[in-house]
Amino acid sequence: MYFQIRNIWRVDGLYFLGIEKEFGTQAASKIDEECWRIMGTLEARQLKDILEVKEWSVPWIIRALRLTSWAMDQQHKKVVAQKDRALLRVVSCGTQLTRLKKGLTEFPCRPVREGYLKAFVKELNPNVEVTCKVCPPGPHSNETWCEWEFTRRQ
Questions:
Q1: Any residues with CB less than 8 A from the CB of 137 and at least 6 apart, and which?
Q2: Rounded to whole angstroms, what are the CA distances from 26 to 3, 9, 62?
Q3: DSSP β-bridge partners for residue 89
Q4: Distance between CA atoms of 131 and 114, rounded to whole angstroms?
Q5: What is the DSSP string of the chain?
């Protein structure tokens, strides 16, 4: 299964690079953002059907998120989940490191990832909020490419 997920991400990257080369990073990012926002909703709906969870608490949302194509492909992450709060941190991002290795700039992924995560969470529990703590194009450390907080609204 990992092989198929890896190939989905390869195709995603190739499409992005093609659009970026032809129309620029801004156009590619806008298209990518819309695709992944829809994908967040679709993956959440599918996981709702599969997991049949009655109440989507923050820990359950994190469990479901670990089953998504993004989380399965993003192997270098740390997750801390509590009852009403969780932090997900990507400590090494293959996509970003590949871009840098190819001499490209960092991918400004925040709008793409934020749209995906917010759509995913909204589909499961609209009372849970996703907040970006760190993500390109914003500054980040070598130990944290991006960090997302999930909190249940009171």
A1: 106, 108, 110
A2: 30, 20, 30
A3: 78, 147
A4: 8
A5: -HHHHHHHHHHHHHHHHHHHHHH-HHHHHHHHHHHHHHHHHHHHHHHHHHH--SS--HHHHHHHHTTSHHHHH--SEEEEE-SSEEEEEESS-HHHHHHHHTTPPPP--HHHHHHHHHHHHHHH-TTEEEEEEE-TTS---SS-SEEEEEEE--
Is residue 121 a contact partner of residue 130, using CB atoms and an 8 Å limit?
Answer: yes
Sorted by sequence, the CB contacts under 8 Å of residue 102 that are 6+ apart come out as none
Q: How many CB atoms lie within 10 A of CB 44?
A: 23
How is residue 41 written in tokens? 């909703």
Residues 58/82, Cβ–Cβ less than 8 Å? yes
Q: How much is the pLDDT for 5?
A: 78
pLDDT 10s digits, 7-29: 888 888 899 999 999 999 999 99
Whether this prediction's pTM lies above 0.70 is answered by yes
Q: How far apart are CA 63 and CA 50, in angstroms?
A: 13
Structure tokens at 54: 């009655």
The CATH code belonging to domain 2-152 is 3.30.1380
